[in-house]
Each structure stands twice: as C-alpha cells, then as structure tokens.
Design brief:
Arc Repressor Mutant, subunit A; Rna Polymerase Sigma Factor, Chain: A; 2 domains; mainly alpha; rod-shaped; 189 residues; single chain
C-alpha cells in the first residue's frame, strides 16, 4: 500500500471488499452497518496509503483489523445513543391523521346522501325521525316539542324509518356504500 494510487486502491477494493464486508457483518450483525463500515475501511486505507506497512504482502489482515476497530467504535456509539435515549424516554407515537381525515370526508359524503333521502320524507316524519332517532330525544319529549301525542310521534318515526329504508333500497343501484351506511343508521335506532 505504500505510495498507492487510485488504481491500486481500486484493485485492493476489488480483491478484498467482499471479505471486509462479510467480516463487518459478522462483527455487527447488521448488513446496513456492515456496508457503511466496509466503505469506511477503504477510506481509511486511502488515508493511510503512504504510512501503512503490510506484513506478508497482504492487506487483508490490516483491512479486517481496521474494520474490527471501526465496528467497535460504532457499537460503543450505538450503546451511548441507546443509553441516552433510555434516559430521555421514547415519545409517544403520533397517530397518522390521514385515516381520520379520510373517514371524516367519507362521513360527510354519506351524510349528504342520507340528508338527500331524508328530505324526501314528509315534514312531520322527518322532524320526528331526526329528533328521536338522530338526536336521541325521547318520544315524550319529542311529542311536547312537536305538539303531538306521543303515540303519533311513535307512528311518525316508524313510518319515517320504513319510507327511508324503501328510499335507500330504491337508490341501491346508484351507490352501494350509501345503502349500507344509511341502512345501518336506520337499523341502529
């Protein structure tokens, strides 16, 4: 290696890269770390090309020793980093908002379709249905607000559900997603 030039380093790399790479992997048990370390080994070979004296005219033992030393340094650094991380603690993962945003957009679309179907109901059925089914108001409270008998409100809700289910099933050909979601809303009530 003494007095080596770029061509000599290229030959050295071609001859010993695989052995250095495999050695670094065996020392670190990580292919990606081994790749980085084997590159560093040859950078060191270039930096020390004029100072290094080879024994038995083979650079491989020297290259493997450099790889071992670099791997030790890497493992010590990684250990310090892990200990520091342990002292600081790992932050809680932040949930990805994309799924929530997509769900909200889908909900808005389904609600537009559902409102379109509900608007086709007679006004009394629509008011009773939205109060009792969507808002969870009791039949007795809805009867007071709507100025109707409780039995009338029950009947309006029942007829409204039936008409809404028919409306949804008639538009099933237009959108299967709307059908399943509207039917679920109607059946959950």
């Amino acid at each position: 290696m003494a007095g080596g030039d770029a061509h000599s380093l290229g030959e050295l790399f071609d001859r010993h890269h695989r052995a250095v790479y495999n050695h670094c992997f065996r020392v670190t048990a990580s292919w990606s770390v081994a790749e980085d370390l084997s590159s560093q080994v040859f950078i060191e070979a270039w930096r020390h090309r004029t100072k290094t004296q080879l024994r038995n005219d083979s650079a491989l033992p020297w290259l493997l020793t450099v790889g071992t030393n670099l791997a030790r340094n890497e493992m010590r650094s990684l250990g310090r980093w892990r200990r520091a991380l342990g002292r600081v603690g790992v932050p809680e993962p932040v949930p990805d908002p994309a799924e929530d945003v997509a769900a909200r957009i889908d909900d808005e679309r389904r609600m537009v379709d559902l409102n379109r179907a509900v608007r086709k109901l007679p006004r009394a059925e629509r008011e009773a249905l939205t109060l009792c089914v969507w808002s969870g108001v009791s039949y007795a409270e809805a009867a007071k607000v709507l100025n109707k008998a409780e039995s009338t409100v029950r009947s309006l809700v029942s007829r409204g559900r039936a008409r809404l289910a028919r409306e949804v099933s008639q538009s099933a050909d237009q959108s299967h997603a709307v059908t399943s979601n509207v039917t679920t809303v109607v059946e959950e009530s």
